[in-house]
């Protein structure tokens, strides 16, 4: 449960999310934890509509950087690869945003979640991250405005996440990174109203190095 307490402490912009996490699993709706953690929805579009103005893929920024080197973990096939030795603490930074383009507004708030889809339905565990890996912050929601050196001038959020492969982590495993760029105010209890959002999904592979 420690990981979940840390999620609550780290997410200051999404007050409702914090209170949801504090309440535990009693309310099965709203925000990234609704996927897998507080409910069995498969992805954000179970509730939200894909109606945001961020439609041009080249303008959308979804990147994962190795925090120590600043290098992108993106592979040529578009997936991301996080590799670490067993027991090693590895910190990566999740970058989400939009390049500036005339006529396309900046996102205001980005929200994301790392989840192993195979674990969503498993009600016996609150942990929906890749099996055998521990993580301090598998999801968040953040107001745009973090400056990222590799994306000068873009509207981005950047937040670190630390992972560690435990004894039982498989050599290779994969999970999803679910992302929404959003703007506007959401209406309480009505995920299709008020807020505009664009949904994206990426594959993140995890590898235990010898
Ligand atoms: C089970 C339904 C459900 C799912 C699944 C869900 N949400 Fe939501 N979400 C809501 C509702 C309802 C609201 C409106 C606010 C409220 O009722 O508290 C909301 C609001 C939001 C907001 C607005 C926050 C704010 O402060 O204005 C963001 C951002 C968001 N969701 C992102 C996500 C992302 C990203 C995912 C997927 C990883 C997701 N949601 C999955 C139901 C859901």
Tell me what you see in this structure:
The protein is mainly beta and 210 residues long. The protein has a single domain, classed as Immunoglobulins (Immunoglobulin-like, Sandwich). It has 2 helices and 9 strands. It has helices at residues 2-10, 15-23, and strands at residues 60-66, 80-85, 90-98, 109-115, 133-135, 139-143, 155-165, 172-183, 196-209. The strands form 2 sheets. It has a 5-stranded mixed β-sheet with strand order 2-9-8-4-6, with no helix packed on it. Strands 1-3-7-5 form a 4-stranded antiparallel β-sheet, with no helix packed on it. The longest helix is centred in the first third of the chain and has 9 residues, at 2-10. The chain is globular. The protein starts with a helix and ends with a strand. Residues 1-29 have low confidence and may be disordered. The structure holds heme C (HEC). Heme C (HEC) binds next to strand 4 and strand 8.
The CATH superfamily label reads: Immunoglobulins
The strand order across the widest sheet is: 2-9-8-4-6
Regarding CATH, which class? Mainly Beta
Question: Could you say which overall geometry the principal axes of the C-alpha atoms support?
Answer: globular
**Oligomer status:** single chain
> Which small compounds were modeled alongside the protein?
heme C
| CATH fold description | Immunoglobulin-like
| Residue fraction in strands | 35-45%
Query: Rg, please?
Result: 16 Å
Distance between the termini: 29 Å
* CATH architecture designation: Sandwich
Q: Encode the helix/strand succession as letters.
A: HHEEEEEEEEE
- What's the number of extended β-strand segments? 9
The overall number of domains is: 1
Low-confidence stretches: 1-29
Q: Please identify the structural class as seen in this structure.
A: mainly beta
